[in-house]
Amino acid sequence: MQPRNMSMSGVVDLAAVKAAQEAKAKAEQARAEAARQGGGGGGAVSPADLVIDVDEAGFERDVLQRSTEVPVVIDFWAEWCQPCKQLSPVLERLAVEYNGRFVLAKIDVDANQMLMQQFGVQGIPAVFAVVAGQALPLFQGAAGEAQIRETLDQLVAVAEQRFGLTGLSVDPEADPGADQTAPAAPAGPYDALLEAAVRALDAGDFGGAVQAYKNVLSDDPGNTEAKLGLAQAELLQRVQGLDPQQVRKDAAEKPADVQAQITAADLDLVGGHVEDAFGRLIETVQRTAGDDRDAVRLRLLELFEVVGPEDPRVAAARRALARALF
User: Fold this and answer.
1) What SS3 state is found at 137?
2) Collapsing DSSP states into helix, strand and coil, what is residue 326?
3) Closest CA to 94 of 156, 145, 167, 165
4) Model-level pTM?
5) 84 counts as catalytic
6) CA 115, CA 109: separation in Å to the nearest integer?
7) Which of 50, 84, 228, 264 is catalytic?
8) How far is CA 197 from the centre of its chain?
9) Is 81 a catalytic residue?
10) DSSP codes of every residue in 287-319
11) Annotated catalytic residue, options 30, 52, 81, 178
12) pLDDT tens-digit series, residues 136-148
């Protein structure tokens, strides 16, 4: 199975918009099932299980499926690569030090050319991550340990905040290769409503998903998962049934038409063109005023919610928006 989002541009995979919500639910279901089948004693993994060799045959199981429970950092390397021999031991040591917050998957590019091509690897060492089935580049080439730590800290924070992935339980005395499931987490007070929203998204009922997320937020305005889900569901609802060619034609022919630019930006984002969407709306802010400018600004803020405040493209766009406004 080819990993999703293999353009490696770090785009928002709105074709898999449910991933953030489903990842947490799938992990909890797996842990609950393991607890029912094996009791409560087999949940921890060994430190040796935190660093694994992965090939094309095992990629779906060892990376894609595992990424619904814990972030998977991928180290593309080769025996002949001297920088790889410097970087790989650092990553292996940090995988153990981070104690289950991520799993390191090592892929030999000489033996796995297809995976190298799917990820668009141009040179090694190259390090990527897969979180809830979605891939993103981390860094390429030699990197200092301080930079690596900063990148990993950001990765595990995003995995927890946006996908509910808190990592694996590690037992230094556990047997290598033992069951990697952790004890089942207690259900949250809004799990039923969040699951209803996911089911609505599955059925293409974006209006139903919007209402389910709003029901959560009416009681818990700070619920991060519901905020993200609402922003994504509303976006999908807005673009449902649009003719992309006509939308882009209108935006190109009517640069002063605020609604045409807003609609085109929605399509840009759904198509994964995050920077194009942000840039289009910032340019529109620069050439508008009054109510029109405010409408564009508010839509841009909504799109920031879809992408997530921790994304560096959001931070850059916020700075550009501030310059455009002031």
Assistant:
1) strand
2) coil
3) 145
4) 0.48
5) yes
6) 8
7) 84
8) 19
9) yes
10) T--HHHHHHHHHHHHHHHHHH-TTSHHHHHHHH
11) 81
12) 899 888 788 888 9
